[in-house]
């Protein structure tokens, strides 16, 4: 007998040709499956990191985005703090702080399992709608702030005035279009 080391797994194989071929084919099938799983796991981890970067690009902590991304693609519908910490290779303090931020933002929710003292976290099924509502609510606020800046732009700053006017026009237009867009979206969801 010999030991066959292939794709990180050690298998015992006899000298019999039939056994060696069967074992090799089994090992090859397992290796291909492991490779697919590894590629899938890599894609999953890459997705989680990209969500983290997207969060960071929009002014939020990257770790909050990583947790959000993980909860989106987790095999289980809810994860404990310890599971999140292990999966993301993050500190307990960071996971605790960022889950609290995501809870306060309304993107995730804390749940309990009967008989278990741990806190678990999962996605809120309507979190996207909540986030969009919050973002849309900022449109009139931003437009009003821009209008407040009109008298502050000196006449000599023509490019500044043109940019300001274009932004005000855009946000006015967006404010008028939002109700119809929301209505179309709500009809589509049903």
UniProtKB/TrEMBL annotation:
A molecular function GO annotation: DNA binding
Keyword vocabulary terms for this entry: DNA-binding, Transcription, Transcription regulation
InterPro entries per record: HTH-GbsR_regulator, HTH_MarR-typ, WH-like_DNA-bd_sf, WH_DNA-bd_sf
UniProt keyword annotation of rRNA processing present: no
Pfam families the UniProt entry points to: MarR (PF01047)
Domain HTH marR-type stretches: 68-118
Name used for this protein in its record: Transcriptional regulator, MarR family
Native species: Leptonema illini DSM 21528
């Amino acid at each position: 007998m010999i030991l066959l080391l292939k794709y990180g797994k050690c298998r015992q194989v006899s000298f019999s040709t039939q056994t060696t071929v069967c074992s090799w084919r089994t090992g090859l099938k397992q290796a291909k499956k492991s490779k697919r799983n590894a590629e899938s796991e890599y894609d999953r981890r890459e997705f989680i990191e990209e969500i983290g970067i997207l969060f960071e690009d929009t002014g939020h902590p990257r770790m909050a985005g990583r947790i959000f991304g993980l909860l989106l693609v987790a095999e289980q519908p809810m994860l404990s703090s310890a599971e999140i910490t292990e999966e993301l290779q993050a500190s307990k303090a960071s996971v605790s702080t960022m889950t609290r931020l995501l809870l306060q933002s309304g993107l995730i929710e804390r749940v309990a399992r009967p008989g278990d003292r741990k806190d678990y976290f999962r996605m809120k099924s309507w979190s996207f709608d909540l986030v969009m509502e919050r973002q849309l609510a900022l449109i009139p606020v931003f437009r009003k702030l821009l209008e407040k800046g009109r008298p502050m732009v000196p006449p000599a700053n023509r490019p500044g005035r043109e940019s300001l006017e274009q932004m005000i026009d855009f946000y006015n237009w967006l404010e008028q279009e939002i109700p119809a867009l929301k209505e179309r979206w709500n009809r589509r969801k049903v």
